[in-house]
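Dear support,

I submitted the protein below through the web form. The confirmation email said the job was done, but the results page showed an empty box. After a refresh the structure appeared. I'm attaching both so you can tell me whether what I see now is the final result or a partial one.
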Amino acid sequence: MGAGGVTPSGPTAPGPVPLNPAAPRPLAPGPVPPGPSAPALIAVGHGSRDPRAAATLLRLLDRVRELRPGLDVRLAHIELNAPLLTDTLAELAGQDAVLVPLLFARGYHVKHDLPAATAAAPAVRARIAAPLGPHPLLVEALADRLAEAGWVPEDGTSPSTGVVLASAGSRDPESAADIRRIAAGLRERLGGVPVVPAYASAAAPTVPEAVRALAARGRHRVAVASCFTAPGLFAGRAAAHAPWLASDPLGAHPALARLILHRYDRSLAGTAAPTPPRELATSR
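What the results page shows now:
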């Protein structure tokens, strides 16, 4: 999500967890017991003009609350939708919070927008967790959505099939590296079928370009795997270019809810340090 590759001068969110689809799935309950002493979990989405987007994220967070009863779970947006992140942070003055980006890769929003928001809210003791990808739980959700769209196990070994992993896109090279690792995990999960990353903005190839690249390799039955949290402009564009089938956005998938809690727990376990507001306030 977002454009640009500007990295703040201070600490940023940690690098991604090594992708290993065969690794044991993290359990939702973590080391921090829910209750008044547990930091709030702020799930931070980008924001969308599509009215379905915020409603979808609210359903996802309902699943998170079901997995961790008693935890203060809140939704915030970087732009376009209420509540904005700045408003949510203002409500938590004097409290602890963990920001979990509902984004799939490192990029401008994770590296700049979230640290800038916490810098502007020094009354909140905030940590910024890693983005959702790459991670085996994300791969699980992507594969399930493809199966719901009509993908069957035999497609993974067919010489005529291929997959385009469609995501928002960023000019940040670390973001592209994260998406490539997600694509590699999905390829392994699906049985070795080629999975080509593609982007809705800011990066290449586009979804149509990736579809043509697969067709040039004899892969004419191409599925588009939607690496988006919710319906919106980019997700709709990506699906419209699918020559065969397209999966729905991940939405309230159970694995995504578990992944949000996993990122929250990892942050509190010390893998993401508290954001130093003054240092990040002036960084560009």
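Response: this is the final, complete result; the empty box was a page-load delay. The mean pLDDT is 86.
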